[in-house]
Amino acid sequence: MPLIDPTIVDLSRLQFALTALYHFIFVPLTLGMTILLAAMETTYVITGKQVYKDMTQFWGKLFGINFAIGVATGLTMEFEFGTNWSMFSHFVGDVFGTPLAIEGLMAFFMESTFIGLMFFGWDRLSRPAHLAVTYLVALASNLSALWILIANGFMQDPEGASFNPDTMRMQFNSFVQLVFSPDAQAKFVHTSIAGFVAGAMFIMGISAYYLLTNRHKEFAARSIRMAAVFGLISTLAVVTLGDALGRLDDLLQPTKIAAIEGLWHTTTSPSAPWLVAALPNDKTQSNSLEIGIPYVLTPLITHTFDKPIPGLIDLESAAGPHILNGIKAINALQQYGTTHDAASLATFQQYENDMGYGFLAQQNAPNQDLNAITPAEMPTVVQQTEQETIPNVFVTFWAFRIMMFLGFYFIGLFAFVAFFSLKNQLESHKFLLRLCVYSIPGPILASEFGWITAEAGRQPWSVYGWLPTFQAASSHNVGYMVFSLIGFALLYSLFIAAELYLMFKFARLGPQSHDHAAPVAGTGASPMFAKPGFAAKSWE
Amino acid sequence: MKTFAKFLGLAVVLFVAIALAVLCGDYGPWYFAWLVGTTMIILIAVAGGVLFETQLETLKNGG
Q: Which residue spans traverse the membrane (chain A) (predicted)?
């Protein structure tokens, strides 16, 4: 039986991708809505108007539904590291487990405690105390995300740990390095604020629905104003931070950035075009139907006008020496594992930094044994492994573009809605309001495609440069994997159905205190809403 | 005494804020950017809400 069964690896990857993508339907809303709830409650405390308390409570109820179901979907992933990725857990568990454990404490202790206080403390806490609790919920939900993204940052750029040949796993060197890794930082900021966009779009879309159906207008007009302003600034921040993340990828993961840009050959001129669209072909290693904008790619990626960007074909060739060194490292490590002699250790340490490439070559070695490669077979093994050092370009290229195009669409949408809200002309733009309703899933989709870009682009590594994905999986049989995959798909689909049912139900019901067009205490029966066709009237 | 306690409390908050800014600024510039940026986003969204009330008042008063 071979050490590595590609079907099991693919099924394990599919299962993790499925559960992660399902989970991430809920996460962005949690990240964004908690912050927006804090903003709404702050407005309530500043203005003293009841409508802002109603807003916080109503959107808080929808947030509560999302949070309850979202937490459940996240639990399974931590167990999957043990069940489906046991080699990964063995290899980096010492490092990876720490942020996951802290995340558990943040998510389940801090967040859950303060959520309880937020929901049930309205009549028991003073206004400032309740506001502080809401801020703590917002902080805790984002801190939970922080630790997950620190763990993911380690997979993208393994800082703060080194390989121990005696224990055969990565061990912690520096907690500070792990936490302050540039990749973890940029990823957290980008992902967290992408959640803000999702929360803003959710509130804006449902508020637009109320305006379209002439219900809860006072409530909806205020909600849409705050959500649009909040969403516009957040989207601008996400795009800027995405550029920072791309800059880091250029420095740390050149294969990912080349795949994102569909770049097969190294650029030498600042005139290299940025591809708006193309059909990358991974087999022929070329693009067809390219539509590009010249002079954009080099400054966009390198922030210079003259630095070349390595192409995938050149990156493949450049991997050759690393693969040869990696094979030497693994052979020396195996020798050291048996004899514990100083010479093997010295040889291993000489090639240690390329160890991951040795693991990568293992699936191309005869009987998956690197020691069995004859000198005559070596060039073939190296060549085959070179081709496996780059990610799937078609998937990475398009996942990135879908995310990016959606991001720019959100800027436009939030800008128009904020503008017309400020001019009090929103209701006369029915098309824009409809667009808001249809765009509710947009930021969640963009986040999903962002994750696909990040994870597909990191392949073939689970820990970049150290552990290939196929080496990280557990040994199972296909039947077990298919059974659990179907089980997860059914269970998670039920969760989604429950979420959608509850969200639709409570969103349709709307804030109860605003039914029957009754004026809300503290808001007054505003003339703006009393007059027919008020929205068409300009503030001027 | 109460004023002094308030002053002391605010001084502690200020010290923590400066320490956080220095530490984050040196080791975690993006974390610092998140702290400042999120605060700004919240404040601007709140300003949007407060402006709505001001506009409403102006309209009520026949402005």
A: 20-46, 58-76, 96-120, 132-155, 188-212, 224-242, 398-419, 431-452, 478-504
What confidence tens digit (pLDDT) does each residue in A75-124 have? Answer: 888 888 888 888 899 999 888 888 888 888 777 788 888 998 999 988 89
Residue A235 lies in a domain: yes
User: Which of A294, A309, A324 finishes a domain?
Assistant: A309
- Kindly list the residues from chain A whose CB atom is less than 8 angstroms away from the CB atom of residue B48: 225-226, 228-230, 418
Asked whether residue A274 falls in the same domain as residue A191, the answer is: no
Which amino acid would we find at residue A198?
Answer: A
Q: How far is CA A535 from CA A218, A240, A423, A430, A456, in A?
A: 11, 34, 9, 11, 47
Least trusted range by pLDDT, from A81-85, A245-249, A395-399, B19-23 = B19-23
For chain B, the residues whose C-beta falls within 8 A of a C-beta of chain A are 27-31, 33-34, 37-38, 40-42, 44-53, 55-56, 58-60
Residues A288 and A144 in one domain: no
- The answer to whether B49 contacts A36, with C-beta atoms less than 8 Å apart, is no
Query: Residue B52: its chain A contacts at CB < 8 A?
Result: 221-222, 225
- How many domains does chain A fold into? 2
Q: A228 with A84, same domain?
A: yes
- Hey, are the CB atoms on B45 and A230 less than 8 Å from each other? yes
A54 and A149 inside one domain: yes
| Chain B interface, best mutation among A47, A137, A191, by max B CB count within 10 A | A47
Report cis status (omega within 30 of 0) of the bond before A460: yes
Number of domains within chain B: 1
Same domain? A294 vs A421: no
Is A179 a domain residue? Answer: yes
Domain around A300: 267-309
CA-based nearest distance A124→chain B, Å:
24
Determine, for residues B34 and A196 on separate chains, whether the beta-carbon distance falls below 8 Å: no
Specify burial of residue A217 (Cβ count, 10 A radius: 0-12, 13-18, 19+): buried
Same domain, A92 and A241: yes
User: Which of B13, B27, B42 would you mutate first to test chain A, the one with the most A CBs within 10 A?
Assistant: B42
Q: Among B41, B51, B57, pick the best mutation site for testing chain A contact (most A Cβ within 10 A).
A: B41
Q: Per residue in A439-456, pLDDT tens?
A: 999 999 999 999 999 999
| Domain that residue B49 falls in | 2-60
A84 and A232, same structural domain?
Answer: yes
Same domain, A202 and A231: yes
Query: Is A336 exposed, middle or buried (CB count within 10 Å of its CB: 0-12, 13-18, 19+)?
Result: buried
Q: Is the pLDDT of residue A537 over 80?
A: no
Tokens 């702290």 belong to which residue? B35
| CA dist., res. B37 & res. A234, Å (int) | 9
B51 contacts A528? CB cut-off 8 A: no
